[in-house]
Amino acid sequence: MTPSDALPPCSILLLAGGQGRRMGGRDKGLIAWRDKPFIEHLHDLVRPLTDDVIVSCNRNREHYARYADQLVEDEQQDFPGPYAGIRGGLAVAKHDYLLVIPCDMPLLDRALLEGLRQTAADNPGVPVMVRQGEQWEPLLCCIPCQHANVFEQHWRQGQRSPRRTLAELHAVALQCEADDPRLANLNTPDLLTEITH
Question: At what angle do helices 82-92 and 148-156 cross, to 10 degrees?
């Protein structure tokens, strides 16, 4: 039995629904890096961990469909932000936990994702967020799906900060080093060319 098999099953949400402003409006999930789009790097990483890969996307659905068991898109067409994607993922997740991953972090590894899942299993009913040094990373988290109604309620109240909702749910940290290379956000053209290996 592998460590993954011993953990509760999880659905995995890949957030690829953003506007890509810092990339000149390009669809970040489909940007090629090391000869593959970001979404393919992450799909290859998470596919062995779940039978429920959810991709949140607001364009290019036909491209994303090959990497997803389910697609979700925002009700609004003005790119309302990652909270909308998380809300959509929680609404359709097949399992009791939703592991959330942004599409512009292709250096993530299985050990970190297993750490999120293990911390969630050790803290039943409580979300887990990565904390890089003193900086929280609310888009890299594991959420018990029992809290879907809280996210929905907060959304209807105008909340757009995942971190605030996660904090209200008493999220615990998966602590990482401040300079952990796995957590590099390749979200600008400069970073994309700078981190090539």
Answer: 140
